[in-house]
Amino acid sequence: MPSKTYQRIRSDHASEVAEDYVEAIADAITERGVCRAIDLVKHFAVTHATVNNTIGRLQRDGFVVTEPYQPIELTAAGKRLATQSRQRHEIVESFLRRMGVSAATAAADSEGIEHHVSKETLAAMKRVLTKGWPSEPS
């Protein structure tokens, strides 16, 4: 595999946690009006220390703002990242369902694929969802 491919995979892994967290924070805010660290502890089934460390990185990177014992809020950049991640997730999951994958499997598989799908592949998936499968060459 070419070096460029490995670099993209490493970059995808680095952003995967941030995307999952901002998406979960956005969901919690939508559902309950607020997101607290305990919501993320329960959602991801991790420790408070893991959540605190991750939130610290997200704050450093400009995706969230929070103070000790206060709710976690998304910055404009965090909201954009959450929206982009949610859209990728929905396209991938819908595409898998269109291929005949069960709802449960499509939901689980899209969680991993959404972080690694290229813009080109995502655009092709979206075309299939909106226009149908391309004709086979004759």
Can you tell me about this structure?
Keywords: Activator, Cytoplasm, DNA-binding, Manganese, Repressor, Transcription, Transcription regulation. Belongs to the DtxR/MntR family. Homodimer. It comes from Novipirellula rosea. The protein has six helices and two strands; from the N terminus they run αααββααα. The protein has helices at residues 3-32, 37-44, 48-60, 76-98, 103-113, 119-131; strands spanning 64-65, 73-74. It has a two-stranded antiparallel sheet. The longest helix has 30 residues, at 3-32. It is elongated.
Distance between the termini: 32 Å
Q: Just give the CATH class.
A: Mainly Alpha
Strand content: under 5%
In sequence order, what are the helices and strands, one letter per element?
HHHEEHHH
Q: Treating each run of at least 4 consecutive H or I residues as one helix, how many helices? A: 6
